[in-house]
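HUMAN:
Could you generate one sequence with tokenized structure?
ASSISTANT:
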Amino acid sequence: MFHESFADCWRLRYGTEPPFDVPELAPFLRHRSVREFSDQPIGEPLLQALIAAAQSASTSSNLQLWSVVSLDDPAVREDFAELAGNQRQVVQAARFLMFCADHHRLRKAGQKLGEACAGLEYAEFGLMAFVDAALAAERLVCAAESVGLAACYIGAVRNDLPRACELLGLPEGVAPLFGLCLGYPHPACRAEVKPRLDQAAVWHRERYDQDVDVSAYDERMRGFYITQGMKGEVTWSMRSARRVDGKHMTGREGLKAFLERLGFWRR
């Protein structure tokens, strides 16, 4: 459904003409979050293949410290949609997956061998699990988009981690991190390629450049916001600064304490 060329995507991402053309990479540049899905199902064989793609992602020390829970029960999907601020794509997508950091599986295997696995309480292994889950999910999304599917990450499931754990039946040592909607985009879907920061703002050569100026990006995003029916006078910097002001945590201010109770970040 989405067929922008490499050059088209470059213009949409950066607001400039591309200095070169790599058409083979166009599918990666045309990624966007899709929230409107058709009713076309995703069969079990395709989902299995996508999970295989996720498991083919890099994983630190081959520890594979992540798991995914697929949710097909409409009632549970409704609960997650409500938990995530009533995001209806959670219910409407053909498939909804919950990606989790998982220490439980390795701890259980180690304890069977007489190992306490106390190291899993260190921040290093918590970070390792979070990275593993993110790498696996993004590999799955890339694979899904290559066969015509679309996706939308749902970070708002962290608004109420205790409830999410309850809905998923998670044991100690497993933390739900984010959800993922998968499906075929609705024919009327208007999801756009969103502008990104200039490469100079994120790509530093040899040493980090502390004098980063995002004013040009604020101006580019102003036009994008207007096309999306949002207030153009509220810049990306303003929106982003408000998001991290500590006053709009939407229930996530207690994450650290809850993760510690699950066995993460204790040391």
User: Anything to note?
Assistant: The mean pLDDT is 96.
